[in-house]
Design goal:
Alpha-Beta Plaits, binds iron/sulfur cluster, two-stranded antiparallel sheet, alpha+beta
């Protein structure tokens, strides 16, 4: 089974970096204060870029 992309929403500070870098995998929630995963199977290169850029390291692949 492939690993699934997840965001620890307790840790997310809503900086929007991941959404800007990789809108195919992430978007902001309805309140605009946390990012959410919209494609947990996304394998685009930008996912790695977003993981590396997240200031609180709360984006992970798990499974
Ligand atoms: Fe949240 Fe990290 Fe995305 Fe910033 S880069 S919005 S802290 S998940």
């Amino acid at each position: 089974m492939a690993k699934k992309l997840r965001i620890d929403e307790d840790e997310c500070i809503g900086c929007e970096s991941c959404v800007e870098l990789c809108p195919s995998a992430f978007e902001m929630n309805a309140d605009g204060d946390k990012a959410i995963v919209i494609n947990e199977d996304c394998t685009d290169d930008c996912v790695e870029e977003a993981i590396d850029t997240c200031p609180v390291s709360c984006i992970v692949f798990e499974g």
